[in-house]
Amino acid sequence: MNPAPPVRVLLIDDSALALAVLARMLDGLPDVKVVATARNGLEGLAAVQQHDPTVVLTDLYMPVMDGLEFTRRLMSNSPRPILVVSTAFRDPESPLAFQSLEAGAVDLFPKPGPGTPEEFEASRQELLRKIRILTGVRVVRRQPANPSGGLSLPQPFLESLRLKTVRLVVIGASTGGPQALCTLLSRLPADFPAPLLCVQHISNGFLEGLADWLQSRLRIQVRIASGKESARPGTLHFPKEGHHLRIDARGELTASLDPPVSGHRPSITVTMRSAAEAMGPAVLGILLTGMGEDGVDGLEAILRHGGITMVQDAASCIVNGMPARAVERGVATISMAPEEMGRILGRLEGEGHD
Hints:
By secondary structure, this protein is an alpha/beta fold.
C-alpha cells in the first residue's frame, strides 16, 4: 500500500524570521510539506490558487491584507482549514484572533518565540498535532449568520429534560470550541439562574483573549477562576491557564495544579466529576466539538449521579471526536447543535429557580 500523500501547508506571515521558524518546525517530515510561503493575505490568496494547500497557517497583522480579511475571503471562495498563528494573549491582536475564528478559521497557535531547545521541540510537536487534526476537518463556504432563525422545541421534549432540577451547567470543548461556545451561550439571558463552568482546550496564552472575546458577545458574565471563589449564577467560569477546576457541594470553586489527567490540565473530566459528586442530579453536562476523549468519563459520572448530558451533533462539529466517543459509550442523553442547546438552556430562566 502506498503511503498517504503529505499534508500540503501554506505559510503566510510578513516576518521573514517567523516564516523561517515555522518552515524549520515542519522541515523533514514525511507527512507534512510546506508547498509555499506568502508575505500577506493577498499573496496568500494567489498561493492558494497556485499550490492548493491542504492547510493554511496565517499571521494576523500584515500589510496589504491582514489575516482576518484573508480568512473571510478564503472561506467565502475556496474554503479549507486555517490555523491562525499569532503572538499571544492580552495585546491588541487577541480580539482579532477570535474574530478570525468567527470568520471561519479553525484554531489558534501562539507564534513561536525564542526559547530553549526543549521549548522549541514542545512547540513543534503541538504545532504538528494541530496541523494533523486540521487535515481531518470538514470546512464549508462561510455563510452569514441568521440570528432571527428559530428552532421549535416541543414542550413535552423540554419537560422530559427535567430543567427545573438543573442548578449547574458544565461544558467541555476542544478544537472548534470557541465558535460553538459563542453560539450556545449567546442565547442565554444576563440573569441566567445557574452558574456555568467551562473547560476549553486552547493553546497557552489565548485564554484571557477568549474570555474577553466572549464577554464582548454574551449577556452573561465571563470570569477566569484564579483561586478559591464561589460559582455565581449567570456567570461562565473558566479554570485559569494550566489548572484543573473543581467545585464542591457549597458551590466553591478551586483551581489546582494536580497532575494532568489523560494528558490534560485542565481536564474536562476532572471538572465534570467534581460537579457530579458535589451536586448529583442538579448538573447538566455538555460536551462540544474536539479531538480525543476528555470529558467522556466526566459525562459518565454526571449520568451515573442522575444528571443530564448533552453532546454536540456530528453535523455541526468541526472535529467530531469527543462527542462521537460519548455517543459510542452511551453517555450522551441528547445530541444536537449548539444553537439548539442554547435555546434549551435559555428555558432555565424562570423554571422554578429561587
